[in-house]
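User: Some background: our group keeps a shared notebook of sequences we're curious about, and every so often someone picks one and asks for a predicted structure to add to the entry. Today it's my turn. The entry only has the sequence so far, pasted here. Could you supply the structure so I can complete it?
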Amino acid sequence: MLLFFQRALLGATTFVLLAAAGLAGWAATGPQPTARAAAALQSSQTVTVEQQANWIVFQPASRQPTIGFIFYPGGRVPAEAYAAPLAALAEQGVLVALARMPFNLAVFDSNRAAEAIAVYPEIEAWAIGGHSLGGVMAAAFADANPDVIQGLVLWAAYPAEANDLARRPDLAVLSLYGTLDGLAAPEQILASASLLPPSAEFIALKGGNHSQFGDYGFQAGDNPAAISPELQQAQIIEATGSFLSTLLESE
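Assistant: Of course. Here's the predicted structure to add to the notebook entry:
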């Protein structure tokens, strides 16, 4: 009997290891950051960049931030792919904590934001956001942590039905979507209004698609954009930066 259980345990362990290896391989074959993203990972005169095991942290170089923004990447997309727009937000005076996720999937650690919040107690107002699947998991964290999160930013994303945030009138929400998005269709985004507070703001990026929220190339299943990545991200940065700047005012 003991030998039977030893063999069963060995078999189960082997299965788990093979499954993990397969998942890691699948994640590794996903989109990869472009040269533009790599350039934004370098510290500059205006932004300091600190790369950690679980985080990439962007901070304004010349002032102490009081607003923090935690960001979850899209499914299978490495965190580095969002460096350019997030570094631009740090230039505006925001501390940005970009999460590295297991297997590049935020679903495996939706509570990772708690780490950043604990490390930066000087931050007076926190927002969380994410792209695509990362946005879904960010909404879940906001739902579970109403005393900590004041703002939610969704980039081509919407909450899961289990996270009904309509009962959170105190939560500021910004939802950005591309009108040519082939993976998170505009009608899906707008239908999510019933799961968000009445004050949630929806902004359409005309000609924008799903892939250009980050810098990782064209994503399978998406539609071609009618605007450049630079123009789409300029609109994303402007809208998100304006939204974040109001968090302390709304308290």
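Suggested note for the entry: The helical segments are 2-28, 35-39, 83-91, 113-119, 133-144, 186-191, 229-245. The mean pLDDT is 90.
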